[in-house]
Amino acid sequence: MLVHEKNKNMIRTSQIPLETKNTDVNLRLSYWITTFGCQMNKADSERMAGILERMGYYAAEEELQADLVLYNTCTIRDNAEQKVYSYLGRQARRKHQLPHLKIIVAGCVAQQEGESLLRRVPELDLVMGPQHANRLETLLTQVDNGQQVVATGDHHIMEDITTARRDSKICGWVNVIYGCNERCTYCVVPSVRGKEQSRTPDSIKNEINKLSDSGYKEVTLLGQNIDAYGRDLESQGDGGSSKINLSYLLNYIHDIKGIERIRFATSHPRYFTDELIQTCSQLPKVCEHFHIPFQSGDNDILKKMARGYTIEQYKNIISRIKILIPKASISADVIVAFPGETESQFENTLSTVEEIEFDQVNTAAYSPRPNTPAANWPNQLSEETKVGRLKQINSLVEKIARKRNNYYLHSTQEILVEGKNKKNNLQLMGRTRTNKLTFFNQSQNPRSQYQPGDIVKVKINEARGFSLTGEAVGSGFISLIN
Ligand code: SAH
Ligand code: SF4
Ligand code: F3S
């Protein structure tokens, strides 16, 4: 671990009357966390919020009132990275009026930029990479001692003993593997998230047991390349007979009482096995939704991306899923305008979207990233091509998502209620097992109102591109699309 200590000519937090474990609300300090990027960052933020609350901080109601501001950043594309700088500028100015304010940059930009962030924004107190999320308390102690701290060294991720402060009380993220050992030529993740580190099945099970004790109904197992789970762990059982992989883990956690649904993301086509498809089809709690990015529908581009599969192999995986789990919904990520992508290669991507009929596709125009091979290639495409292709693919994706959602019309779905529809208080919001966002009216009868965590049968009567609406027809059964 690298910790730079620097003298700062600023009044430190430790110089104001701070007793973080103090229960007197007037003396307690507030925090604000803004999270950019993927679910992994969201899960890290929830753990860091848990650490801050254990230290005595409370959640501020507004960003500009908080005593500690933490940006958990993403650098997957340039625009994601730039966003954080505008936020930081605002807080840096605030700090000149409010010297005790602590400003922290965590996550992937922190890892990528390290010490140079301090040069760019000298008001920063702490720069900490994602592998250091669980060490927030220790790092803050160093800040309280008057140091400016940079924690971006390789670090073995310790089990966190803090309870995460989770946004949802129903659906919980559970990290199962950190990092990524792949080397996709466009991607910054391996350099900012480090080598793969799997958590042990027991620590994952313990966390899910605790979630179930607190009333959670759904868990999503997380990893950048979740199919790599267990590769770095010893086998289990007599003489190490049972190989620890994602299928093993799904079986291992399946029967935790109270948890009704299990999801996982993100899957890599290169490692998506028949064993996993079989496992998913056999375990009733594992939901029928798979997020498997394909990135491009063209084999030459896939090769240049170093993805390690062909589009035929990808399509084969989807067919095998559909044979065993016909109602499965499939989502993916795709990059358009990768260096050198021709019009006809782009069309191969469009036709893949059409042929597979994805339920949802996250699209992005290629963005050159630091320390990635593709960023140095001479055949970069113009901004105009990027914007044009993105627009084209987005309208196709939306058309197909709408078509997929239309299949749900008049079917009855099992919806796990997560809360109210934020835009309409009279409606509840939840998801189908296939991960479709669904709204339906709350019961008028106060004695039979549905609560978050209930599983409600909902008959779908309206389908849009990104959501469904229906009416409740009762509670609790296993749904299938008609
Ligand atoms: N681990 C996942 C994805 C991680 S990053 C996988 O292997 O697929 C999330 C998504 O961001 C990627 O799927 C990709 O579509 C997109 N992405 C990553 N790097 C990018 C870049 N340089 N430019 C544009 N999109 C990118
Ligand atoms: Fe990035 Fe590839 Fe790893 Fe996904 S598998 S995180 S795209 S390097
Ligand atoms: Fe972004 Fe880091 Fe996730 S770069 S997508 S927050 S792993």
Please explain how this structure is put together.
The chain is of the alpha/beta class and 482 residues long. The protein has three domains: 12-151, Rossmann fold, CATH 3.40.50.12160; 171-404, Alpha-Beta Horseshoe (pyruvate-formate lyase- activating enzyme), CATH 3.80.30.20; 412-475, Nucleic acid-binding proteins (OB fold (Dihydrolipoamide Acetyltransferase, E2P)). The chain is 31% helix and 21% strand. It has helices spanning 39-54, 78-97, 107-113, 116-120, 136-144, 189-193, 201-213, 246-253, 274-282, 299-305, 311-324, 343-356, 383-406; strands at residues 30-35, 58-59, 68-73, 102-106, 126-128, 149-151, 171-175, 177-178, 197-198, 218-222, 261-265, 289-291, 329-336, 360-365, 412-421, 424-431, 437-441, 455-463, 468-475. The strands form five sheets. It has a six-stranded parallel sheet with strand order 2-1-3-4-5-6, with helices on both faces. Strands 15-16-17-19-18 form a five-stranded mixed β-barrel. Strands 7-10-11 form a three-stranded parallel sheet, sandwiched between helices. Helix 1 links the parallel strand 1 and strand 2 (58-59). Helix 12 (343-356) runs parallel beside helix 13. The model is unreliable at 1-22 and 477-482 (pLDDT under 50). Iron/sulfur cluster is lined by residues 180, 182, 184, 187, 189-190, 224-225, 268.
